[in-house]
Amino acid sequence: MYKNDQEDYTFDSVETIRFESISVKDQVKEKEKHIEKLFDQKVSPMVMNPKPRGYRHKAVLSATNIKVGNSFQIRLGLFIEGSKDIKPRNGHYLHDAKIDEVFKTIESLLIKYKFKAYQKRYQEGIIKHVMIRKSFDSGELMVVFATQNNVFPNHRKFINELILAHPEVKTVVQNIHCKETHLVLLEEEKILYGKGFITDAIDGFKFQISSRSFYQVNPMQMFNIYDYALKIAEIKPTDLVVDCYSGIGTLSILASKYAKTVYGLEINSSSVANAITNKKLNNISNVHFIQGDVEDTLEKLNDPIDILIMDPTRDGASLKFIEIVKKIKPKKIVYISCNPDTQIRDIKQIGFMYKLLNIQPFDMFTYTSHVENVILLELK
Ligand SMILES: C[S@@+](CC[C@H](N)C(=O)[O-])C[C@H]1O[C@@H](n2cnc3c(N)ncnc32)[C@H](O)[C@@H]1O
């Protein structure tokens, strides 16, 4: 089980419904106020979401069975917050439109081929979740079926029909659940069609993304965040940069243009495998990826760190990681966070050693309560 499994929870509908009636301007105001309160100071105005609806390039729908006449039929939908119930809902205003089109086709094929949603109580059915990812650059799509056990009857015919309807689907993966779990994706998988990954591009660099690797859900705002983070870092050609929680190596590779050496530290083996391929794909020699928990890998780097970039999951960093940062004293820290509440908790631990120079929120997850925030700390 990976520590980033929280990224794979199904996107629920209730939270977004709460925000549906609030204007984007008011949502942003509320989020800015929240961050100002947390940091107890004025922050830069929020960078607006270039596409406030239809921005999600990764979406998960879960399977349920509904009664139709005298029998049951499969439907795809979203979990209702705080419950195990799935509300059939094919189409969501935050999903990229193409993704929702493909979900519709998949649902009708699942019905046509008489698939049933897996039901724990009766140990019956196969389909648990369907995840779709879309490359911003090429429009390529990846479809992942999370199934109970490894059977997928008629998968060749099913996939042929799917790609006939949507030639943009370049790969189909089956993620196999051999145990009961609340997670969407587990480690075991089988590539049913294509190469098992799609490719995206940022700033002229190519990135391979596989099903279980972390990749930001809102690519347009992701470009703005990376640009800003690298701008405030002011990386010099002599600098050693460490990108903690590096995912598939996007920021490490972008930073390699400016730095002498970059280390990317990441726990998820599938993301690290993508990162190493991405380094080769882009002919880069000054970036090194190390797999492991940042609590172990950061301390093992012997050279003084000029810039530490950190982009942890919503839980923020661990106390142990913060203690290591305090010991090794990087000259600058760029902290990218999708949860300002844990971000402020973490920087309070190191605050007295660093000057807080920038606080820049980004509206990355419009119509949800979440917000991305980037800060710069400089060693006093
Ligand atoms: C928010 S993502 C950021 C990824 C990357 N910076 C990006 O923009 O695509 C957080 C990443 O931290 C990784 N992670 C979580 N806990 C970790 C840990 N203890 N040590 C190393 N990496 C960890 C996750 O696997 C995930 O890839």
TrEMBL record:
GO terms for molecular function: rRNA (uridine-C5-)-methyltransferase activity. PROSITE patterns: SAM_MT_RNA_M5U. The keyword Transferase applies. The keyword S-adenosyl-L-methionine applies. Pfam families: tRNA_U5-meth_tr (PF05958). The active site is at 338 (nucleophile). Belongs to the class I-like SAM-binding methyltransferase superfamily. RNA M5U methyltransferase family. NCBIfam families: rumA (TIGR00479). This is 23S rRNA (Uracil(1939)-C(5))-methyltransferase. The gene is rumA4.
